[in-house]
Write a structure and sequence with these properties.
4-stranded antiparallel beta sheet, about 70 residues, alpha+beta, 4 strands
């Protein structure tokens, strides 16, 4: 996975919201006090690979291990 971005969200309620930006899916979180946050950018074309890998981890090791990754 590539593409680490600093993102700015309008409200703290935006935490965890997926956004699409220039060919990337941004999974972001926000600090409620500063209203700015960080986001992980995943190229849209790599999203199916990520989903398959997470499904494999869940099957092999369970949800708790998948959450760690």
């Amino acid at each position: 996975m590539r593409g680490h971005f600093t993102v700015h969200f309008k409200t703290p309620e935006d935490r965890g919201i997926l956004k699409i930006w220039e060919g990337y899916v941004i999974i972001g979180w926000v600090n409620p006090q500063t209203k700015s946050g960080r986001g992980l950018g995943i190229p849209i074309k790599e999203l199916p690979i990520l989903i398959r890998r997470l499904e494999e981890i869940v099957k092999e090791k369970g949800v708790k291990e998948a959450e760690k990754r």
